[in-house]
Design brief:
With 270 residues, this protein is of the alpha+beta class. It folds into two domains: 155 residues, Ribosomal Protein S5, domain 2 (2-Layer Sandwich), CATH 3.30.230.10; 105 residues, GHMP kinase, C-terminal domain (Alpha-Beta Plaits), CATH 3.30.70. It is 27% helix and 30% strand. It is built from nine helices and twelve strands. The strands form three sheets. Strands 1-4-6-5 form a four-stranded mixed beta sheet, with helices on one face. A four-stranded antiparallel beta sheet has the order 2-3-7-8. A hairpin with a 6-residue loop joins strand 10 and strand 11. The longest helix is centred in the middle third of the chain and has 16 residues. The protein is globular and about 60 Å long. The structure holds 4-diphosphocytidyl-2-C-methyl-D-erythritol 2-phosphate and adenosine-5'-diphosphate. The site of adenosine-5'-diphosphate has 19 residues, from helix 1 and helix 2. It comes from Petrimonas mucosa. Catalyzes the phosphorylation of the position 2 hydroxy group of 4-diphosphocytidyl-2C-methyl-D-erythritol. Belongs to the GHMP kinase family. IspE subfamily.
Amino acid sequence: MICFPNAKINLGLNIVSRRTDGYHNLETLFYPVGVRDALEIIPTGEDTGYRFFQRGLKIEGETGENLVVKALKVISAEKRIPAIDIHLLKRIPFGAGLGGGSSDAAFMLKLLNDTFSLGYTLPELEERAARIGADSPFFIRNRPALAKGIGNLLEEVELDLSGYFFVLVKPNITVSTREAYALVSPSIPEVPLEEVVKRPVSEWKELMKNDFEPSVFKKYPEICKIKEELYANGALYASMSGSGSSVYALFEKATEIRFDNCWVWKNKEL
Ligand SMILES: C[C@@](CO)(OP(=O)(O)O)[C@H](O)COP(=O)(O)OP(=O)(O)OC[C@H]1O[C@@H](n2ccc(N)nc2=O)[C@H](O)[C@@H]1O
Ligand SMILES: Nc1ncnc2c1ncn2[C@@H]1O[C@H](COP(=O)(O)OP(=O)(O)O)[C@@H](O)[C@H]1O
């Protein structure tokens, strides 16, 4: 059984407050995008156990287990899972604010549920995903959603950005989510996000913000330059995604914009 975990972008990201457990309450809109990993599990016929194989991008700075293995362990603690080989082909840039690791974990939960007919409902899968990462529950339903709490309280929204030309740029910088949170200052938005996304995309520039941008741009001015370039080339809306380092933009028309030393995904439909 194979699946293709996709990335997400954050449309607006307000850090609302710091919590006593070290996490932050936020308000953001998750939107799925078609940059994908490939994840396959193959039952080996043995009784129990697993082997993990990873190709594609080499995940640097990985401490502890891959999130796919964590997902397997969450389920194995509750149900008997026959032995499997796990193959992960990594294409989604990491340390990019694209949620690739969280997506891999959520898709692994769904893959196990389907392959071994485990009978978990979507809310039950979301609850298990939340144990792995704050962003992970979103990828269970994988539809545009307003997220509150630590990112786990989800409300689906009707938002269709197909028809725009989408550009995603990942510079050769990885930002640690934990460090980004340590530097951010909580703030209350002037206009609630659910109101902003009902307005035309051309108005978003004035109404929507990502609270990580000031501190991340200060540390890495190159990321800020990418956003400025996107606007200078006619973007209707541009923003850093999540805690960075990737920056995305929505254009009305296809763009010829180029970036040196960056991974670029250009003129795609969302
Ligand atoms: C910032 C966001 C925005 O969508 O995405 P990314 O930029 O990572 O993609 C998310 O909140 C990232 O969620 P996720 O990457 O799942 O975070 P986790 O692994 O659960 O937590 C990593 C660390 O980030 C901090 N953290 C995370 C979520 C949150 N609401 N408050 C926090 O303070 C904590 O220090 C935690 O130890
Ligand atoms: N399957 C995975 N894919 C990506 N990163 C993983 C994975 N498993 C563990 N990680 C760890 O999670 C970190 C964050 O990865 P990711 O969620 O893709 O980025 P971001 O937090 O920027 O959205 C990586 O730097 C890596 O240490």
